[in-house]
Amino acid sequence: MTTPALNTPNTPPDDSFYQRHQKIYPRQTKGVFTRLRRICAWGLLGLFYLLPWLTWNGQQLVLFDLPARKFHIFGMVFWPQDFVYLALMLILAALLLFFVTAVAGRVWCGYACPQTVWSEVFLWIEQWIEGDRPQQIKLDNGPWNREKIGRKAIKHALWLFFAMWTGLTFVGFFIPIEQLWFDLASGQIGGWALFWVLFYGFATYGNAGFLREQVCIYMCPYARFQSAMFDRDTLIISYDASRGEPRGSRKRNQPRPDDKGDCIDCTLCVQVCPTGIDIRDGLQYQCIGCAACVDVCDSIMDKMGYARGLVRYSTENRMQGSGSSRVIRPRTLVYAGLLLALTLGMLVSLGLRVPLEMDVIRDRNALYRDSGDGRIENTYTLKVLNMDRRAHDFDITVSGLEGAELAGVDGLHAAAGQVLDVPVRVVADPDRLTGRTQTIHFHIQALDEPRLQQEEESRFIGPRR
Question: Is the pLDDT confidence value at 288 over 80?
Answer without folding.
Answer: yes
